Amino acid sequence: MNKAKDFPEETSAEKLINDRKRVRKHGEVFTPSHIVKKMLSLPSIKQACEDLITTFLEPGAGEGAFLVEVLKRKLRTVERQWGDTLERYENYSLLALSTIYGIELLEDNTKVCAMKLSRVFYDAYLRQLKKHNRKTKPSVVDSAELIIAKNIVQGDVLTKLSYNGTPIVFSEWRVLNLEKHPISLMVQRTEYTFEEIEAGVTKEAGFIVNPHEPKGQLTLPLYEDEQDDQDIPLLDTEARYLPCKITLVHREELVQVGG
User: Fold this and answer.
1) Percent of the chain with pLDDT over 90
2) Can you give the pTM of this predicted structure?
3) Helix or strand or coil: residue 102?
């Protein structure tokens, strides 16, 4: 995740259009921040923004005006309810981040949206680090980066295809122990195409849409006399995502199935 100085500088005057050609070709017009805040302050939406497990999907994310504001509100809720220890904040802030999804047609907008979400998450995390007098945990930052990369995608909502012509794929980050309100949250990642989400398809936990694409690490079962985990790269093996701590999702740990 980039440090704050690596992000684009905010300007005092809001940008509502990038280029008139883009307006004509793509209908691209950005929503002013005061309108975004007013819309998200409607009672039912305001309540959803303060609920950590309510998901938001913006089908025309643009540069992230709505998603950024939703994340800010969710993180304020995390700070109020789960900021008593840094560990609890880290876990529940990642949970909040995992509920933010967006699809954007244009590449530059997609990158800016992801960068803005990263900045909001990172700045809020820095405040907590200062409050608790602690140092950044790379695993938390890396997990946040992965979640944003998988949740904010470049694609066409109408065709349901990503920029490279393959189906848009999202990851569900299902929490396995939330009802106990633990310090450490356990999650299991499951992939769905956008078309499957619209159709209400349910899948086996840990399912991977393209299981033979190289990703993560394949963890093999060990014999009793073996002491350490042994991870090998996934090649041409069907696999599922393993349940793991939410602060460790960046490892993308897998287990072989069948065969």
Assistant:
1) 63
2) 0.81
3) strand
